[in-house]
Amino acid sequence: MSQRFKDIDYIGVFLWVFRAIIIVLVIYGTVSKLFLGVGNEYTIETWIDFFVSGLSQGSLYALIALGYTMVYGILFMINFAHGEFFMSGAMTSTVLVATFLSASGFLDAQPLVSMLLITAVSIITSISVALLTERIAYRPLRRAPRLVPLITAIGASFFWQYFFRGLFGSALIPFPVPESLQGRWTIFGLEFLRTRVVVMGTTVIALVFLYLFIQRTKTGKAIRAVAEDKDVAALMGINVDRTISITFAIGAAMAGIAGVLWGLVFRQVHFYMGFVPGIKAFTAAVFGGIGSIPGAALGGLLLGVIEAVGPPLFLEGLGIVGAHQLKDVIAFTMLVLVLIFRPQGLIGEKLAEKKA
Amino acid sequence: MKRATLLLVLSLLLALFLVACGGGEASEPAASEANEASETSETAVEAPSTDSNTSDAVSCDDPIGCVEVAPGDPIMLASALVISGPNTELGLDSQYGVEIAIDLHGDIMGHPVELQPEDDGCSAEGGQTSAQKIVSNPQIVAMIGTSCSGAGVPAAKIISDAGYVMVSPSNTSPALTDPELHEPGYLRTAHNDKIQGAAMADFAYNELGIRKAAAIHDGDPYTEGLATVFSDSFKELGGEIVAFEAEAADATNVEPLLTSVAAAGPEFLYFPVFIPLGSLITNTAADIDGLDGVILAGADGIQSPSFLENTVGTSEGMYASGPDLSFSNAFYTDTFLPAYMEKAGTEPTAPFHAHAFDATNMVLMAIEQVAKEGSDGTLLIGRQALRDALYATSGMEGITGTITCDENGDCADPKISVSQVQDGEFVRIWP
């Protein structure tokens, strides 16, 4: 008996209590919201609106999170400048292409061609910025201690923010949405905003392509090999530097796509727009299991949905005023919980000793 | 190892995030640091002034010290406005106003006036850092700023404790000049939002006949204060506030928020926030089913061309309260605007350049009143005397109207008007 008490680990007890408190709060809030009618009353349609809105925001997080997770998978560094890759694509394509196409009327006349053109410019810009950053800021530091590239990444992030501020100014820039994408489509008897459908569809397509690329092509195989063990991969004749550059480029391409979709949904771009989505996407990547591609996608979607549904569901149920302001609290509490109870993330693998 | 690094990264990340989001919790350390700063600055100021006694110059008899400007040296002013980040347009606009005032005023008793621009970051941390930097320089006479009320709260404390004085062109939060909370070194030429919020409630209730309204703020003292005053005044008039919500200023997805608000069934939605969130709300509201026909209204934070460009179509017909900018004086159109266009290369981007111009002139005129010149050309500016002169400002004709300061630091001639977006432009419609 006394032996059993000795084995009690106080931190373990604390964590159990912590977990129990969170679960009780969530259940209490949800029950009082749904069955006791605390706060505003929502119809089923309203709940679906919350959910769909969360899914489309989550798709964007997922696309950006891919860049974090791929770079982490191969270099074990957190590329904080990734949010700026996203911003650079969105801003450049908006200022140089979208505004011009909109003014000339081509955007409304040929929405598909225009959107593809805008996306292409966005992807090219993001990739250029990413490759430049990788070559100048990260590659020389590849053998340095791990914190060094991390701090460099933060520096690079500031550099790109103010570089694009200098280039395009500090004002918010409107992103023109083609007429044919405004309004709603009816799918399965439910009305969805067209832009949201486009965002989710594009994200699914991009994810499938990425998955096939990583799993089925020779370059994908090389990326996986380098992620497994750089030195052995080099011995097998894989050009490690080139493979790392390709990884950056793919992550940046996803960020470039996300940049255009972001413009479609939120209709404005800004030199500062990469910061918050970057941090949220990083959270999503850790949430799903950093280093894992399906993990980043799942983490992004979940984060988006929790941010949208969480505040009206259990925060309002707890009687909190101005609940939507606290969605970041929910997001980061989820992150802390995942890190405590499942540090490898929701579907992340346990890493080999050498990587850790 | 991996876990340790990840935790480190996370704490760093959280720190970054907190810095970016800002918050009002930074006042405690500010106070103690400010005391230190005030000690150092006072000794730095007083040491040279005893020297100057020997060279039969005027001596400093000011209770909180003097600034001594040697012959030929410039008189230093500082500004702390938001000149980086998403609200840059607001701060740069004011800074042009300050610079134009200094240029037009010219030398004071043979000394040029020089400006040290700082950045308030539109956050509590930014306000604290910039104020700390300003009080560490004993040559700085006064500060113009801050842009944002959130930055103004810690800055007012630091500046006042150090014996300096500040005049803000665009802080409008009622808290800053509340008799209980007011700091002795704090004045402003911007209106108090007690007046703006009440004016909007009056307009909505009596002019538009609204009975059910909702308000959204972003937690910043400016937006929260304004939304609160609006709600209180609206309820006093007999209306009902069906939703009082808050959203983070850097939020990206406001659809859930607006869906919640729509479920409460308001007729009128007031969101006195800054441009990024304001245009996001305006654009998203057009997509929300339940907000069809709900009247939208913002405040002076969104009265800028940039807001209109970002909300083409969606902002049509919405209202915005703000300082009355129909400045009728010829000076504004003939002298100020051309100077502004030359400096900035654009039309004014925010409403507060005029307030910044008036604030700077107020300070420059007060310096002229209190500065004493020694026989060797050294200028002594008493800090308490400067404060007294500023508070005594009365009947000064500025661009924004007749400026008269009360004992709580409110100097504005508060004229609030309501504008409506018509054909993509703000058109003044009330009163």
What is the compact description of this entry?
The complex is a heterodimer of chains A (356) and B (431). Chain A is mainly alpha-helical and 356 residues long. Chain A has helices at residues 2-6, 10-34, 44-75, 82-104, 106-109, 111-138, 147-168, 194-216, 218-228, 230-235, 240-266, 275-288, 293-317, 327-341, and strands at residues 173-174, 184-187, 190-193, 268-269.
What does this 3D model show about the protein?
The complex is a heterodimer of chains A (356) and B (431). With 356 residues, chain A is mainly alpha-helical. Chain A has a single domain (39-341), classed as ABC transporter involved in vitamin B12 uptake, BtuC. Helix content of chain A is 73%, strand content 3%. Chain A is built from 14 helices and four strands. Chain A has helices at 2-6, 10-34, 44-75, 82-104, 106-109, 111-138, 147-168, 194-216, 218-228, 230-235, 240-266, 275-288, 293-317, 327-341, and strands spanning 173-174, 184-187, 190-193, 268-269. In chain A, the strands form two sheets. A two-stranded antiparallel sheet of chain A has the order 1-4. Chain A has a two-stranded antiparallel sheet with strand order 2-3. In chain A, helix 9 (218-228) crosses helix 11 (240-266) and helix 12 packs parallel to helix 14. The radius of gyration of chain A is 22 Å and the shape is globular. Mean pLDDT of chain A is 87; it is low at 352-356. Chain B has two domains: 30-190 and 352-393, Response regulator (Rossmann fold), CATH 3.40.50.2300; 194-325 and 417-430, Rossmann fold. Chain B is elongated. Chain B starts with a helix and ends with a strand. By secondary structure, chain B is α/β, with parallel strands linked by helices. In chain B, the strands form four sheets. Chain B has a seven-stranded mixed β-sheet, sandwiched between helices. A five-stranded parallel β-sheet of chain B has the order 3-2-4-5-6, sandwiched between helices. Chain B is built from 13 helices and 17 strands. The longest helix of chain B has 28 residues, at 27-54. Helices cover 45% and strands 19% of the residues of chain B. Classes of the chains: A mainly alpha (356), B alpha/beta (431). At the A-B interface, helix 3, helix 7, strand 1, helix 12 and helix 13 of A face helix 1, helix 3, strand 8, helix 8 and helix 9 of B.
